[in-house]
């Protein structure tokens, strides 16, 4: 754990109460008037546009109180403007009427509408689902032509910026860059940043020297007759250099930019305080010769590229608008396309795969410790033999204590760094909230009254990243409906482990196979079926995914994706089963075509008490029994005798 | 049949022998030199860009001999250029070496590579799969900078034109519009066009007055604050006006353009010789007031739009480059998007659906006549009891006579107009060629030696359009492998009739469900699973489809698609099962979500002699038996006693 201790854990409290929130908005509005802005757009992004942010980049949380991982606020400079408009009514995308109440709005996706309404002051912010009321429509329905809307170009992707700009342009509304970030100007008590050092990610972990990776990128540039690429994603830069860091919770990276030239040369734009001079020689041995430039020098790059008439390859979805606007101003010829690191990063090499499998074994042991502990805690309440004293013990446990207990078990594993995301520890109806987080909502729910518990969690290990969801029996009140729906979800997950598919298959083609068992009963789930997973990097990684909207990247050998169908009954319960699978070639000489399959690397029991056996085909039963046999082999030697007994029961053949 | 008699059946012979083909190329090259062109691109398109062309627009067939429905040729002006380059070798997309032999090349898709090689003179043309060797790469690998490539802008979509233009631009090669079509200038014996009159498509057939359809389009324009749209697709124009015609084989339309304004006004650009003045009043009663303009007046439109500063909505995939380039030159503001008729045309109204069902019953009767006839013809050769005399009779039948016999049975049905596409009548190994056409290849194959016969055919009826494929036993030599693979294909087809799916599901999500049974055995098929079908219009219709590349149009109530998985073993046999299904809402009050399903409208027996029952689930067996019961109900009263006996056997419960 030592060198991976997280340095910037400043534990900001964003939920400072309503008056504080009101004061912040007042100060911001004053500043907006000084800048002649009619409104300000605040995104949840920093200049690297990552899903995970350092605490001092949590500007959206600071100003709105909302802590979800995606959302955008628009704040009008005049707090009376809406009331002047007499509660203006607009039409949403379903043509339903929506009354605008507040002179500020927060736009979030379906995962976060409930959380955003709880976390924001509803006298300050209206909360909208971003497809039902579009940010652009909200602005144009309130503000007239010649209004000025401020935005920090560093905190929005170029493509999204252009989208908003063009929508507003049709109404003669101007989108202007604020220069400095206005939230930063009023965020006076922001904790100082302690630069956390860049860490070498050793060759026995990464499996491919940085110089080889740079050659690969350089060759692509050469083939396309382009001079260089600018890489903004910290995950890509860290993968490319085989380094890691501790700048961001849940994501072990050094935030930085890189430029790779078609000759293979590389410039690393990074806060130089993160590169201890004592380590430079060691770095050079690790990844060879590159140029180290302080991230503040990025500004000089644009004119230099223009001077040399260099042509630049760049990802307009993953690069902030400030960089691309500067390149455009300097007349640098641009070719847009996907970040060149993204695809090779997704195709894990043998060392990375071995690491992923190894950390999944450790993670399976931690999960089994936890599930055995939980089962012993709850067995009496499930079978109804509980006494009053024991009931008290059970009720002292809640979503937070369960999450902490699981973290404790994970922490005991070798090479564990931190959680790969905030644990979703959800009892009863809370599990129906897809991205539930007990920290964000009023109070954690206690064990004792709900039959089902959903736990979605994962770890960052030096060898890789894990992500697993299990839904287990923890209390009285289990119904036949719950068992039926659990079994349908499980059938969907098994379907994606059983399916064989040809090369060239997209994730979008497989999505329905996981849903079909639910669909046949008129049921569905409102999220994707699977996402890529990084290697000691982001737990959500592209370019592959399994969803109806998966892009044009086929699933190829060595890619890892989650498989996580679910079912959610609002206000009652939620079910999700999640394994990670690695795409492997099937060696079968009788097959005319080479086929692929997704082999599980997650090995933790599914709760067989929730399965309706008669709904499984023989093939599905065989799969479950073989899977549980493998679980036993992997974890049994790491468990106590008590836990081993639990394991035998939990993995008994059905 | 009377008014639908096809008027322009000039039966051109494109396969005029090598010397004729050589002479045409010589004349064309002379003309190219006069125009200072280094090369000419010849597409298989007319100005409406439809899949089906009038015979006198078959320019690609005239110059190359290739009669497939898609392909592009590039012809260099100097026939010695390639030999001067000493059989230049280039790399294809798999990085394999390809030797360029001829100074002209034909680029076709996977359906047509075999056919194109047979139909073209291989001393004149190289044939390439269009993704393996790209047309643009072929040009740039041969021609240097400042070369001039001619193209008729009227015969290519704007988007494809821009794609080629930009690829060539990077090599300083210029794409220039030839003005007149150079093929037309050397096609001296082209048959004259007899204008075929526009025909009223009555309200009891169309189900929605033209004026309502125009209002719908006008409202979309109003909502988007656009002044008008230009519609180039003849299918869209014919649907919009509720008219039909006989300009094109297999596609009962009047070729024409339309302009619809946001006020609902409409201009119809059509060869006015097709509008008999005696009929004008009748037309006015049928579809209300519109302006009739001769198609030659389209040129005046551009300046008029510019003068009025009108904003135009236009489909850049389905509009020829000549129109859009003219609009751009006139500085007309353009908004690009899908043809506004395409989506409402795909969602059939109740009258259209009733018509589709009715013509499918007639088509089922014709198919049963045919299959019963074929079974009686072949039963003795199948069971081995055949005598020499009967064998002779059987061998006198070949793919062509079978196709003719089927056409005869269809022709006997009320309101039959013509085939909806060239019948694929394929015995044995020919069925492994996905778009096989016995007319195009050397000689039709005779009955007698192959176990399997694949027949993919359809009809245009006044009430709608049909498309059906059956694979049946017709001779000795059936193997267990054939039965196994037939059953896998059938399972895939049944899967798409059984699946229930929520609103918003794309065709791309369902594609794998039809393939999964084959995938599990390492098998697949190299074509989409389903396409939309027009209503007395194009048998291939968008925007919906079922394939891994289906766009972002969900399947909605009233859409019709084919479901046609297959299996093809090269040089041995081919299997395909195809039904059309209509998307319907499932009325099930126990379903929390409204689900959709694809209900068959095709009712013709599947050959139960080819089914391995033990491979079907109980649910699949139930589906087949219920389906066959329904087939009996629909067709039995239209069959002779002999045919009824056949039907009882063919639809017996399995």
Q: Can you walk me through this structure?
A:
- Two copies of one chain form a homodimer.
- With 654 residues, the first copy, chain A, is of the alpha+beta class.
- Chain A is 35% helix and 18% strand.
- The first copy, chain A, has 21 helices and 30 strands.
- In chain A, the strands form nine sheets. Chain A has a six-stranded mixed β-sheet, with helices on both faces.
- In chain A, β20 (459-461) and β21 (464-465) form a beta hairpin.
- In chain A, α15 (350-383) runs antiparallel to α16 (388-395), α15 packs across α17 and α18 runs antiparallel to α19 (507-519).
- The longest helix of chain A has 34 residues, at 350-383.
- The radius of gyration of chain A is 26 Å and the shape is globular.
- Chains A and B meet through β23 and α19 of A and β23 and α19 of B.
